[in-house]
Amino acid sequence: MSILPLDDNMTQEPTRRARLVVGPADAASITETVCAITERPRPPAAWYAAFAMSAAATGMLFAAIGYLIATGVGVLGNNSPVFWAWPIVNFVFWIGIGHAGTLISAILFLFRQRWRTGINRFAEAMTVFAVACAGIFPAVHVGRVWVVYWLAPYPNQMGVWPNFRSPLLWDVVAISTYGTVSVLFWYLGMIPDLATLRDRAISWWRRIVYGLFALGWRGSAAQWHRFEWAYLLLAALATPLVLSVHSVVSFDFAVSQLPGWHSTIFPPYFVAGAIFSGCAMVVTLAVPARSLFGLKSLITMRHLDNMNRLILGTSLLVAYAYLIELFMAWYGGNQYEAFAQLNRALGPYAWAYWLMVACNVLAPQLFWFPKCRTTPWLMWVIAVLVNVGMWLERFVIIVASLGRDFLPSSWGMFRPTAVDVMMLAGSFGLFCTLFLLFCRYLPMVAMAEVKGVVPPHLGSNGVQ
Amino acid sequence: MLQPEHHHDDSPPVVGILAEFDGPVTLKAAATGLRQVGYAKFEAYSPYPVHGLYEVMGRKRTTLPRLVLAGGITGCLVALLLQWWTNAIDYPYWISGKPLFSLPANIPITFELLILLGALAAFGGVMVFCNLPQLYHPIFGCVKFRQSSTDTFFLAVDADDPRFDETATADLLRSLGAESSELYRQPRTVKRIPGMIPATAALVAALALLPPLWIAQVRYARKTSPRIHPILDMDFQPKYLPQQYSPLFKDTRDMRPRVAGAVSVDAIIGHVHLLRGEVDSPPADTFPMPVTSEMMLRGRRRYDIFCTTCHGLAGDGDGITSQLAFEREEPKWVKPLSLHDQPVLGQPVGQLYQTITHGIRTMPSYRSQIPVEDRWAIVLYVRALQRSRNATMDDVPGELKKHLKSIEQSDAGIPNAKP
Amino acid sequence: MPEYPTPNLDNDQVRLVGLPRGTSGVLMLIGLVALAIAVALGWRRDDQLRAFSASYLVNYTFFLSIALGALFFVALQHLVRAGWSVTVRRSAEILATGVVYLAVLFLPILAIMLLGWTSPYFKWLDPQTIADSHLAREKLVYLNLPFFTVRAVFYFLVWGLLARFFFKQSTSQDTSGDPMLTRHMEKAAPVAMILFGLTITFASFDWLMSLEPAWFSTIFGVYFFAGAVVGALAALILLALALQAGGVVRRAITVEHYHDLGKLLLGFVVFWGYIAFSQYMLVWYANIPEETVWYLARQTGPWTWVSVGLLFGHLLIPFLGLLPRVVKRRKMLLGVWATWMLVAHWVDIYWLVMPTFAPRHLPFGLLDICCLAAVGCMFFAGVIRTARRCALIPLKDPRLGESLTFENF
Do C216 and A332 count as a contact with CB atoms less than 8 A apart? Predict the structure, then answer.
């Protein structure tokens, strides 16, 4: 029996399972590592720099939204024939990003993948923030945003009800359900960790604030029993939910008769793409966050390796969908469908299409090589490329199909305006702002869960 | 064993004993031991869930799964009921040829609500079952207990337990592997919430009920003035009214003069009979084109599209718009005239044509929506509708007459209205 | 400390004993007799072997899907380095090797197509259909007999090689105990998955979707895959029950394995429902005639009831049935639901194939039972032959201990 060094958990030997936490970790040291981030008087200088930048971008976002609401949707590039343009691309992009959190916290939980404990908390946080970013776009581009409550089914003096047979209303229901359940799931999992922060608090206001949010959690056996059941049940509900949400988003397109949109593979294809982009965003954030906040023992190289394998796998699923769409466009014999696919590859948006293929299909293939899966800067670059690629994918689907429909006389090009670009950049600012605040004030790693997979009776190095 | 609680000095009453253990294994063993001895009121605390601990304490499995199932089923039923009642019953409208209650299109929302209510049941259930939020508990009084959320394991035996004894229980716990134990008590001073706060809260809650009550009152009260509505977009529209200022033009008038060389539509001399429905100035009594069955069919289709909403399918003035307006007691609504009564019945076709073209009273002009030929076709169909109410047996063609007679004799109810 | 607990199987019987010596031969014989009866029953003067062809395709696809689902199961376990499934993995490996025998059983289909012993097997072989349908004509580049045959050979080559590879590596570990063999299989798993995904997709296009040459659906491959995994999981559960009932692997397969297999079955029942709904909803909603025609055939006459039956029998009822924890942990109950799912899966395949051949009635009868018996007996004759040659669990798998001791939450 060979004993591996404590800080290496990259073993591929089938005779043993790798450590989930490296270094001499026990319950006390895990608590210390995670809580210290929020307890130190000042965050690292890099945090301030990042926060200043992202807060500025957030300001820009709200300025753009204010201008948009005050002036009207004409300030966006949406125009005939591409009415569903930039905002919907951003919306689908952000919703997709929001899928990795639930994948990691719910689906991997059901599959007993215990390595998820290292990254599930901040993946969930990322989900909540991404859904918040996503929600902005359809809301502000409806036109008269102040009557957006008309989407809700309430008895009104107009005597009308929303049309529940419309995919756009499914979208409203699916996204708000997803947002609600994600927040509940995130918060429920965080309660025991908030109690830890409360119990360690030295200052009065920390004790009060964390105490309020910890709801008086005591960690009794009865509470843990119910907590675990609730967590399992929420995971079991969130798993089909996460599949349904991006499926419903895909229905927005696929129930139409527009070539390039109407394809039966859209629901699973969109879900795979969403998880793909979400995992890439997890890596994009995890690589800097783990080194900035000293979490390398909890978010280990093996975690990143696993995430990169997931990216590779979902990249292949997305590639499968591209391939089947192309094949069917040829096999199906429908000239409009064939044209739509050819137009993507050879038409005026060919640059976006080929960039998308390069980012989504080719770049992740580097992850076949173990070296690429374990080199932080390289995986970061690939993950960013995947994010770019997945944004372009939605751009290609939405803009290229709308710009070239059945009637050549109604063809047109889409050109984004400055407000469009400002809103996209600003949404990244909002996302990063929320994420930075989360890193600073909330437990970034699910301490209670990690402690559970590093049982002290198995020795301090937590192998199982 | 059973002893009355001692009040040495003036310490507050004891709530229980808190014993510390070094790990989940000893904790579980001690809980098993306590239960074997016969203790029932004790609780175990750990920084992370310890599997099997709850079971060895002899507690019942939570009913949370059943609650979630109930939540899910409720969500499912609520969604189906909502979609059915709103889209098929209360406000039915046809969308892309789908049935009013079309299950495939109703599934996504049904599914989402199933999940939403299931998740809310799970979260609400765990809060209720765990007694959360419960911001204060006597055990928080132990300084040591703060370690329980980091890495320390505790057993707390309640003083309420019939077997509880300050020394004997402590000894038992030590024999079960406790590293240390201590009594914990009620807090010496209990800070009470000042009475003003709940009173204010109750007042605010009561006041908060007023706006919805007011809204309900306004919504259901019968008034002759227009209803109150919060969004005034339709009242103050960004548009130009006659005789107003406009910065867009040099002369700052929003009404534009005729473009030089433009010819008024009224000035077009054309087929007077066809375009104006006139023959020598009084309304024409004849159609300007030959009447055919195609024209009749065309007229029927156009009528069904443009006229039925107000005049009704048979021309009785009972179209859906009118019905809704009456149902909702619209103060300004006037019932459209029935096409089967005077004065419409006696009007020449040219006048009917002019009514469609120019509108009359509250009926708007349809000249921009309906082309000239179609207007005449509609007039023809209206004539047919009128005739159908005032027809005699002589108007019926020969073979149909026989059919009608046979129906009359067999008295089989309403005859099938076959053209 | 980092190693797994040592496996403890205490005299558990891990070899296929109890079946008489000549079982394979007898099954083979029964299969051949059933085939002969089926041919006789399916022969019609006017369209020769058409009825037989349809029924044979249904039952052939049924067993093929089970073998392919099992192959997917094996590759998946290696892809994710699963520990729990070790003791049930060998059954899947053996089922997957059955694809080699199924390659032989594909020959009747090819023979009927090549020799033209029926009015066309696939409509795209029919000159009249080609002449009438523009869309069918467009597809002749892909749908023609030589290319069809080449593709079929390629699919079987891939499946056969993959199934043999996993089986060979795994059984050789039984003797050598070399943990690196596990590593080899793990490294091969992603490649196997890619090949599997592409071949099962295009095989389902070729053999099921092209029955209606004008119709197409991009999700069809995923739909067939979902059904195949449901069938394979149900078959694995029943196989484990049968083996244990016969006094084999009684200790190696525990209630936890049944629980996990039951969870996976439940998961794939829902996944099938999700894929089936996605396809139906999008076709129904967009309402494009060239797509709705396929569902129209399945919503006409008695086929309506088969469709409704699938909705309830393949999704809603088994979903509720498999949901309670207790069902997955009681052998009898789980066995009932596995049988149910296997029947539902057969009906699913029947529903995919038959409306093309019999649009107005449900041609279920002795012919189908004979075809089922024919393919089933010959398939299992081969599978049993393979099973006799090896242990029924991977005896020296490095994760055997983990598989024997894990517990569900």
Answer: yes
Tell if the pTM clears 0.80, that is, is over it: yes
Strand order in the sheet with B153-158: B42-45, B153-158, B14-21, B180-185
Residue of C85, C184, C278, C279 to mutate, testing the A interface (most A Cβ within 10 Å of its Cβ) = C278
How many Å lie between the alpha carbon of C281 and the closest alpha carbon of chain B?
A: 6
Tell me the domain boundaries of chain B: 1-189, 272-392
Beta strands in B301-371 (DSSP E): none
Dihedral through CA C347, CA C352, CA C356, CA C358, nearest 10?
10
Q: How many CA atoms lie within 13 A of A8 on its CB side?
A: 7
- Which of B32, B56, B130, B137 should be substituted to probe chain A, the one whose Cβ sees the most A Cβ atoms within 10 Å? B130
Give CATH for domain B272-392.
1.10.760.10
Taking only residues 36 to 65 of chain B, the set having a beta carbon closer than 8 angstroms to any beta carbon of chain A reads 43-50, 53-54, 57, 59, 61-62, 64-65
Q: Going residue by residue through chain B (419 aa), what tens digit of pLDDT does each one get?
A: 344 445 556 778 888 999 999 888 899 999 999 999 989 999 999 999 998 899 899 888 899 999 999 999 999 999 999 999 999 999 887 777 788 888 999 999 999 999 999 999 999 999 999 998 888 888 988 889 999 999 899 999 999 999 998 899 999 999 998 999 888 888 877 677 788 888 999 999 999 999 989 888 877 777 787 777 778 888 888 888 889 898 888 999 999 888 888 877 666 666 788 888 888 778 888 888 899 999 999 999 999 999 999 999 998 888 888 888 888 777 788 888 888 888 888 889 999 999 999 998 888 999 899 999 999 999 999 999 998 888 787 778 777 888 877 777 665 455 444 44
Under an 8 A CB cutoff, do C218 and A17 touch? Answer: no
In chain A, the residue whose alpha carbon lies closest to the alpha carbon of B91 is A160
Chain B interface mutation, best of A187, A237, A453, highest count of B Cβ atoms under 10 Å: A237
- Name the pairing type of β-strands B42-45 and B180-185: unpaired
Q: A210: which chain B residues are within 8 Å (Cβ-Cβ)?
A: none
What single-letter DSSP state applies at residue A458?
G
Tell me, what's the pLDDT at B411?
55
d(CA B27, CA B40): 16
Q: How far apart are the first and last CA of chain A?
A: 15
Amino acid letter, C28:
M
Closest CB to A463: pick one of C2, C83, C285.
Answer: C2
Q: Which residues of B touch A173 (CB under 8 A)?
A: 108-109, 112-113
Cα A225 to Cα A56, A110, A183, A193, B45, distances in angstroms: 45, 17, 21, 16, 11
CA distance B298 to B314: 16
Copy the structure tokens of residue A1.
């029996």
The residues facing B115 across adjacent strands are none
Look up tokens 């012993």; give the residue: C117
Contacts of A265 in chain C (CB under 8 A): 217-219, 222
d(CA C147, CA A133): 50
CA angle C315, C319, C323 (to 5 degrees): 175
Q: Pairing state of beta strands B14-21 and B180-185?
A: antiparallel
d(CA B253, CA B270) in angstroms, rounded, equals 34
In contact, C181 and C172? CB cutoff 8 Å: yes
Identify the sign of the CA torsion A155, A160, A162, A163.
positive
Query: What pLDDT digit, counting tens, does each position of C286-341 carry?
Result: 999 889 999 999 998 899 999 999 999 999 999 999 999 999 999 999 999 999 99
Residue range A305-324, pLDDT digits in tens: 999 999 999 999 999 999 99
pLDDT digits (tens, 9 = 90+) for A147-176: 888 888 888 777 889 999 999 899 999 999
